[in-house]
Amino acid sequence: MKLAKPTTLKEVAEFLGCRFTGNPDHEITGINEIHKVVPGDIVFVDFEKYYKKALESAATTILIDKEVECPEGKGLLISESPFDDFNKLTRYYNPERFSYTSVSETAAIDPSAEIGANVVIGANVSVGKNTIIFPGAVIEQDSIIGDNVVIGPNSVIGHYAFYYKKKTDGFDRMYSCGRTIIEDDVEIGALCTIDRGVSGDTVIGAGSKLDNQVHIGHDTVVGKKCLFAANVGVAGCVTIQDRVTLWGQVGVASDILIGEGAVVLAQSGINKSLEGGKTYFGSPAGEARVKFREIAAIKRIPEILENL
């Protein structure tokens, strides 16, 4: 998430009531979680095993729970609870704007778009030319819907990311301040859910088609002209390149990459990155031709045992 106006290390430390290390005028231009950071961003870290990753990331300001050596050119914010302070920052710079009307006054909807009955369109949403949104759909704040998009009945675009911190008294949700971007010529079926980014963008690439009851997790980027059949579930922070096909009930674990042109057959489970241009099957998914040979071999086991 980019800030509307840059701020400084000292100003953020005063707002949070925490100590800082570095140049007081060190500039901060954005807030992001570790998967999306770029120079100018704040990132948080509250586990020592991840200190190195955060300190060496592209982020130039680190919200951390222990005073450590500050890398050159960066700034540190020393906090007793980085997770809570990160939430405090994101809520301050991008507060939740709950709408009590069907269409927010701050939404920008092209006159050529068709909006069905009982559709809810939140704050700062934009809807492009010739887009059709069927009855009951909900488009939550900051979502960007391109031209010639179809969104099916009762689908939800831009709801909270599934991101929690476990505490002794339960789970605290990470406040989602990112966006959901649906590019041109995308079709989304009925009862689909596409979560907004935690602090970055969830993207559905141009020309992609999603069947009914598909779920896309936070900060996932789906390429152009992809095809997802019913009940596909994709976790957060996944990168899916162009022209990937996921058939029915495929499940995808978080933080992996699926290469361009890959095809994954129905009911497969993907737990690691896959090369493009191949067909996959099984759980865990592997190349289909190998998996089918394995299945054929397993079927012969009773016969083999009988002949021992």
TrEMBL record:
**Keyword Acetylation set for record:** no
Which CDD domains would you find in this protein's record? LbH_LpxD (cd03352)
- Alphabetically ordered keywords of this record: Acyltransferase, Lipid A biosynthesis, Lipid biosynthesis, Lipid metabolism, Repeat, Transferase
Superkingdom as given in the UniProt entry = Bacteria
> Which InterPro entries does the protein's record reference?
Hexapep (IPR001451), LpxD (IPR007691), Trimer_LpxA-like_sf (IPR011004), UDP_GlcNAc_AcTrfase_non-rep (IPR020573)
UDP-3-O-[3-hydroxymyristoyl] glucosamine N-acyltransferase non-repeat region domain spans which residues?
25-91
Spell out the PANTHER family in the cross-references: UDP-3-O-ACYLGLUCOSAMINE N-ACYLTRANSFERASE (PTHR43378), UDP-3-O-ACYLGLUCOSAMINE N-ACYLTRANSFERASE 1, MITOCHONDRIAL-RELATED (PTHR43378:SF2)
Q: What is this protein called?
A: UDP-3-O-(3-hydroxymyristoyl)glucosamine N-acyltransferase
